[in-house]
Amino acid sequence: MVVTRPTAQALPWAERLNQLGAVTTVISLLEIVPVLDNVQIQAIKNCILDLDLYDKAIFVSQNAVELGFEWIENYWPQLPIGIEFFAVGETTAKLLQNRGAPVTDLAQSQVGAMTSETLLQAPGLQSVAGKKIVIFRGVGGRPHIGEVLATRGALVTYCELYERLLPEASQSEFAKLLKDDDAQELKATQDLTATQELVVVVHSGEALENLIKIMNEKAVFERAVIERIWLLVPSQRIVELAKAAGLIHVYGAQNATEASMLQGLIDVKRALLSFKAQVKKV
User: Fold this and answer.
1) Residue 87 — φ and ψ, nearest 5°?
2) Cys staple from 254: which of 106, 176, 260, 280, with CB 3.0 to 4.6 Å?
3) How many domains does the chain have?
4) Domain containing 276: what range?
5) Do 180 and 141 reside in the same domain of the chain?
6) What is the pLDDT of residue 148?
7) What is the dihedral of CA 92, 142, 114, 100, to 10 degrees?
8) 140-188 residue pLDDT tens
9) Under 8 Å between Cβ of 213 and 180
10) Which of 111, 89, 93, 91 is closest to 102 using CA atoms?
11) How many CB atoms lie within 10 A of CB 230?
12) Are residues 271 and 180 in the same domain?
């Protein structure tokens, strides 16, 4: 099983899976790097200094909370009064609360798919005409929340805190793992099954994009390789993206929380066992 989260999140997740009996390999498809460009840094500083001018602040990820509050706590010993805080997903909401930020419409961050679409159903984000809203995210993040809020009349600003990069070493490691010629070589260390299926766990659309990029650049987007990959992703939207890219065995968890992804892995294992049984009959 291949765990692809950024290293800081991948290692404890892999350890948890190991405790449950899985054999894991960590090959991070994303590296979270704070922005370094002077123009970008000044843009962040401007957002933070103007924090009290915003009506609502939305944090799209754990990284957005952690990096955003490093900035906020440097300039605001106490949070400005009157701002409503929103989060995409339960884990992000918990991190916000741990930083002393009361999360508005908390229930909306704790149910269902816990996606941007779910958050946009929050009561506090419906009547937003004329409201100033700042969205804390990574550079070039998915624009869906901002676009929808803008159509509702909100004045949207992005505070882009970090970049999501593909680690250079991961490209060669993943390509090697995926190539049929190298699979036998890796069997002893990766404990792959006799038919060399690879269960790959992807937690975001950006990680999926990097996986597809590796497969295209390393010329491993072949039928034999594709059939070996059993992919778990955190939402139906990402399932559709993976299938549109040509992947075959794709399964979606309800959301990206640990509990949902663990249940998703159970579903993948059942499907894989059923598939193997059918192949044996043939």
Assistant:
1) -140, 145
2) 260
3) 2
4) 2-30+167-281
5) no
6) 98
7) 20
8) 888 999 999 999 999 999 999 999 999 988 888 887 787 644 444 444 3
9) no
10) 93
11) 22
12) yes
